[in-house]
Amino acid sequence: MKFFVDTGDIAEIKDLASTGLLDGVTTNPTLIAQSGKNFLKLIAEICEVVDGPVSAEVAATDYATMLKEGQKLAKIAKNVAVKVPLTPDGLKVCKALSDNGTQVNVTLCFSSAQAILAAKAGATFISPFVGRLDDVGQDGTQLIKDIVQIYKQYPNFKTEVLIASIRHPIHLVDAAKVGAHVATIPPKVIRQLYAHPLTDKGLAAFVADWAKTGQTILDAA
Ligand code: G3P
Q1: Is the pTM of this model over 0.90?
Q2: What is the residue with the minimal CA distance to atom 5 of ligand 1?
């Protein structure tokens, strides 16, 4: 499973990139607004920090303007993945950009029918928003299971399932169980993945018991 971080916070991106576990980054207009940074400059900076796909979302909603915006974003760096909304015009842009070799992340996916359209439009990634479905009482993880199962029926579908809107580690684990290709994870949730009280307790005991030996490793002959 590839791990992308879902943020526009360059300090968080740099910190998580240093773990060696980061395969890409996703942003969206909300995350860009929260960063307070210049959008194009921030995407360029992120693309220098992370070699993997960096999703940069168009702002327009009409075909002609989204296409021009997407073409401009794609020129920032070779690892830019242009993000477009799952609308008729967004998928027309997806088809045009992907036919031209640009990576496209189709976002705001909430149904299997939408995911089928995105695959047919040549999307590199499809982003089902599991958390937002859960927020309205629908089963976001079930959607991931359905999309993965549908895509498996068609070898010519090259679109990777990128689980988004992750609220907690179980969203990621459940998606991994069914073979989602990518998870884009808020920094807070990435840190939750590491955490377990029994790990902390066990390590403290190892440290204390080692200290009782009076030995060191590095100074030993
Ligand atoms: O990449 C999409 C993601 O940022 C949406 O997450 O928490 O706004 O539903 P959220």
Answers
A1: yes
A2: 165
